[in-house]
Amino acid sequence: MAAMWQQLHGVMGLWLLLAVGLALLSGVLRSARFKGWLGERLVRRWLAQGLDPQHYHALHDLTLRLPDGSTTQIDHVVVSVHGVFVLETKHLQGWIFGAERQQHWTQTFYRHRVRFQNPLRQNWRHLKALETLLDVPLAHLHSVVVLTGTAQFKTAMPAQVVQGAAVVPYVRSFNAQLLAPEAVQRILQQLDAQRLAPTRATHRAHVAHLRQRHARAEGASPASTPVPATVPATATATATATATAPAVAPRPPRPLADAVEAAIPGRTEPVLHPEPVPTTPQATEPCPRCAAPLVARSVSRDDGAWLHFWRCQRFPECRHMLPRTAQVLPLEE
């Protein structure tokens, strides 16, 4: 009997160990770090299989130090006589909503919505850094964003975004010769000499630089700056308020980072008008059920569209609703 109990305990221990191992493995597979590593490995394999190494020279996981002391990390760089291709890899799933010049894109996955930085804007910083470090004209640098997951664009996919192994024919579609073979070798030597060692310490230092930059950006944002309750009416009041304001330590100069952050993706960026702002409509008639006022409400659907309707002010006691059309203010020239 004792031996049977020992055997049973041993089997239960094995099952428990297996369950813990599966839970840990599931957590690793779902982590952003593993997804990023998987996406970069896939792109590396596609480039190695689809591009001739005699004409296309691929470098992976480059961490470069900028003149202002910060660092930039680039997933892949392909150097050829047709230019320098700067690849940013994103392993995403679900539906993607975004345009080329939007600051943020939206990922919808099982009714969950996540906003993330436009990878084209992120890759633009890489292009500006290489333009300065390599002394290469911006026209010779090509930005490419590679989606390695199962994500699908529900809006028009930008021209510089490709999915999966389509990155190979996209790179090979550039036929014009922009660089001489001697320039290609010079760029390869510069990248090899300036790149930092691809170690965990380098990655941790780069992440620390990113956090410091984001902290400085948040600290300097208008939302974090206290706004006085009343605006001074005279110049004397303004001078007094300025004199009594606490002194803020000046930020160390970062010419390259400031230039990169101030740049907008695209070689020539037109001035965009702000999007029209919906007005607050007023109901002309009260609720036909209880005579209470009607209020305007809007709710977003899963496909990104908005539904606009009238609802009784006494909701949820009165659930009367009517559809309405959103009114939009005209743009001021």
From TrEMBL:
Domain NERD: 35-153
Classification via Pfam families: NERD
Residue ranges, compositional bias (Low complexity): 235-248
Disordered as annotated region, ranges: 235-254
Protein name (database record): NERD domain-containing protein
Organism (species): Comamonas aquatica
